[in-house]
Design goal:
By secondary structure, the chain is of the alpha/beta class. It has one domain: Thiolase/Chalcone synthase (Peroxisomal Thiolase, Chain A, domain 1, 3-Layer(aba) Sandwich), CATH 3.40.47.
Amino acid sequence: MTDAVITGLGVVSPLGNDLDAFWRALCGGQSGLGPITHFDASAFRNNLAGEVRGFPPDPADAALPRACQYALHAIDAAWRDSGLADGRAALVAATNFGCAELGQALCEAAIRGQASPAAAPRWQMDWLTNLAAERLGLAGPRATLSLSCASGVAAIGVALELIRAGRARAAVACGYDELSFYAYSGLSALRAITPDTIRPFDKNRKGTIFAEGAGALVIEDRRAALARGARIYARVLGHAMNNDAYHMTAPDKTGRGIVAVMRAALADARIEPGAVDHVKAHGTGTIFNDKTETAAIKEVLGPRASRVPVNSMKSMMGHTMGAAGSLETIGAVLTLRDGIIPPTVNLETPDPECDLDYVPGSARRQLVRVALCNSYGFGGTNAALLLERWEP
């Protein structure tokens, strides 16, 4: 089986718009949440969100939707970070809502009888994928995914499979989303938003807080990366995707789907559960997700689950939707590189049903050799990814 590694990273997030700022904020337990400024949120249960701030858009992209600007920036940063110049590379982009603000504007214009057919293609989710590939000159396979909040990890899995199949020696995987009134209204209707703040795994958790951003990773054939002298961040061991086949929005409280996807990822990676040193949890702060994920981790990892540190980056940056799995995977990669596990913040009151080691309060220095990244989404979409520390 072809061995794949990660050679480039790019971020746009509520915690910073470059890799160093993002990592410092995570390790410092900083919050990227604040009042929503993109639209009037006064009618909603909560006006907090994880907005991207201080983002310096390229003047040439000023007319593009914010979601596209975020994704293009992250993809370009990851590509430059990798040092690649291979026009045969693939590109896989993933999102929940794509350019949602543009879609909303197009619908409002149509209602007024002012429809703009020329702008409609930009609402299509593959428009960003095509634009990014053209800008970087990537002539390899292109794919666009929308698998709810599992999208980011799923994109990495598809990129890995393209490399394994020999269809590309390198691939860029990007998850992205923007906050919009259109998307936020739908998420609010699902009653997933907390009235106060996001508290993953805390007894008093009441829901999640949504956010925006983009995360991009360059996945590359290991032999090709070594041959060109690339700087390698981590090895990609394996992945899996499935779905609960249960309900359009409600989670399967038995956790069967997420147990199955973790076990399938371990099997794909050809490693035993005992090799996992750290779990990057989906950790949304919703009542059922957190206790179901906890039970699933315990079932998969067995008796040693209580000794494996688990954390939720959403406690600091919020739920970045299609970007969540991408940004959380980048966090896992940096944990493998530096031996630092960021904390789960706002975890103040223990919950008997959430009884794992969630690294509460402050970051922890600990050597991690193998990390498991979990992502789940509405509709029962599940994805899991296994990464290994790079040791030449």
